[in-house]
Amino acid sequence: MLGPEELRLLISQGLSLRYLLPLAVEMLRVDPMVEGDLYPGDLLSAALFRGPQAWADVPDAAQEMCRIVAGIADLAPGIRRAAQYLEGLGGF
């Protein structure tokens, strides 16, 4: 099983996103600020910065990611802006 750091690295490299983004969402559902080797929330950041096309390929995961992001009260403004494209895919 892949841990948060492995998922963060693979997602950051754009590898197998159709399969890895849903795995990341499962992990983020349990702990949205799960940390790989960089900082709390690094997996969330890596997933959100993949952009709308990656998420369009996994609409169910995109909707769940919307719910996760909406539930984080103290999310950094830059990360929240990066998530705005999810509005069209699943809505906040």
What is shown here, in short?
With 92 residues, the protein is mainly α.
Write structural notes for this entry.
- The protein is mainly alpha-helical and about 90 residues long.
- It has one domain (about 5-90).
- The chain contains 7 helices and no strands.
- It has helices at about 5-10, 15-30, 40-50, 50-55, 60-70, 75-80, 85-90.
- Helix 1 runs antiparallel to helix 2 (about 15-30) and helix 1 runs parallel beside helix 3.
- The longest helix is centred in the first third of the chain and has 14 residues, at about 15-30.
- The radius of gyration is 12 Å and the shape is globular.
- It starts with a helix and ends with a helix.
What secondary-structure arrangement, pairings included, does this model have?
Elements: H1 4-12, H2 17-30, H3 42-48, H4 52-56, H5 59-70, H6 77-82, H7 86-89
Helix pairs in contact: 1-2, 1-3, 2-5
Q: Averaging pLDDT over every residue, what do you get?
A: 89
- Strand-residue fraction? under 5%
Number of helix segments? 7
Tertiary shape = globular
Q: In which range does the helix fraction lie?
A: 55-70%
Contiguous uncertain segments of 5+ residues: none
Given helix and strand content, the structural type is mainly alpha
Number of DSSP strand runs: 0
Please report the distance between the alpha carbons of the first and last residues.
Answer: 30 Å
Largest sheet: none
Our Rg estimate from Cα atoms comes to 12 Å
Order of helices and strands: HHHHHHH
- Count the domains: 1
Give the oligomeric state of the chains in this entry, treating copies of one chain as homo and distinct chains as hetero.
Answer: single chain
